[in-house]
Structure formats: C-alpha cells, structure tokens
Amino acid sequence: MGNCLGNRRDSDSLLMCGDDEDGQFALGQDQPLRQEQEAWLSEVALTEGSLQGKRDTFWETAPVYEGRREIWDALRAACEATDEGDYELAQAILQGASISLPRGRLTECYDELGNRYVIPKYCISKPTNMAAANHNDDDIEEIVDSTTKLLQGPPTPTSPSRKASGSGEIRRRLPQDTGLTMVVKVRLSTLSKDTKVTVLETARVKDLKRQLATDQSVDPRKLTMLYSGRVLNNGTLLKDLEIPKGFVIQAVVM
Q: Domain limits at 45?
C-alpha cells in the first residue's frame, strides 16, 4: 500500500507519497524519465510477433476511449524509444508534448490539461520470459515463396519507355511540382506553442525541417520529426501522411 505525508517548506505545501516499488516521490511534480528497464514477467510467454500485436492493439484502441490523440502518439513514440534504450529521445519527446511523469515512469503520465494516461508494461519493455520464435513457420513461407516464383516463370521484360536513356535502370517518378503550397502545424519542443509552416505540396520531411530551421533559427540536423507515434524519415512525402485538420507534427530538438 502507498502512503502520503505532508511537508511544508518555504510556505509551500508539498505532498510526498511512497509505495513499495518506487519509494518516495513528489505528487504533482514532473520527474525525469528513469533510465532503466523495469523487469517483469508475462503470464503467457510472448513471441516478438504476439508482443507487437498486443502493442498495436493497445495504441490503436486507447485514444478511442480517453485522452488526446496527439498525446497518445507522443507516448507511443516515447515508449518505442525507451524500448530501444534511447532515453534521451524519449525524454525530449515527453518534454515537447508537455507530458509529466509523477513517478518517473511511463506507466502513469499526465498531459498539461491534467488528463491521466496509463500504459501497460508490455508497451514499454519486453518481458524477461520472451518465447523463441517458431522457425517452422518461416521455413514454410520460404518454400511457398520459392514455389510461387517457379510457377510464375521469369519476370516480364521492362518496357523500353520505362528505362533511362543509355542505361538499364528504371527511372524514378518524382512528384510533379505544381507550385501549390500547404500549411503544416508543428509543435517544436523548444517553444511553448504550436507554429505553422508553409511548404510546397510536394515537400518531404527534410524540406519541412529546413523551413522550420529557417523560421525558428534551429539546426535542421538536430531535428527529429514524429507523427502518429512514429519517427518520420527524411524522404517521406508530407501529403502521404494525410494529416487530419488540427493534428500536429512534433519536432524534437536533440
């Protein structure tokens, strides 16, 4: 059972709480993310595939019932960074989204409006009793794939019109620059409010970084872009993200 006690210092009242797992912590204050993996056991041994399935199900359904979608996306990105051991990125994501951790753990979080977010341990780290993958299924898939290729026969020759002049390489179709622009709402981790960035409709993530760097005087090489809980690759087309109105891209300065 937890316990709480009052502590008055310099005319400010601070409520100190404690439990068997985390010791004593300051209720209502943001604690830095603990740079450690919490060991836990799964009731049923999970494979990599089944664990990822449970995680995907949680992240897809949790925003439907409570909380804000953009906060859930930020928490997902922070959990994935933590699972990979990148605590610096996880902390930067939390700060950029104004998410507080009263215990220093991702299992219980709060946004700036006071909404509470509870995340299961399996979304943060792997259990200590992970099951080995079943290689038999992989072997069967490989045999089926090889058989399919044999039945299909050799690949159809590429049309000359699709080949580059003087070489056998196929030309990559680049998006046509129509000159039209789009406005992207970005939440920069060093700002207290969102900012709007105007880019071409054919712009990629790297172009957004450059424009944001110009507008806000930051180094584009230190920017990490996140949307819907995923780190965005520089080559991703912004229009392919199909960002709904009112949603934001998080820009974390590392």
A: 16-123
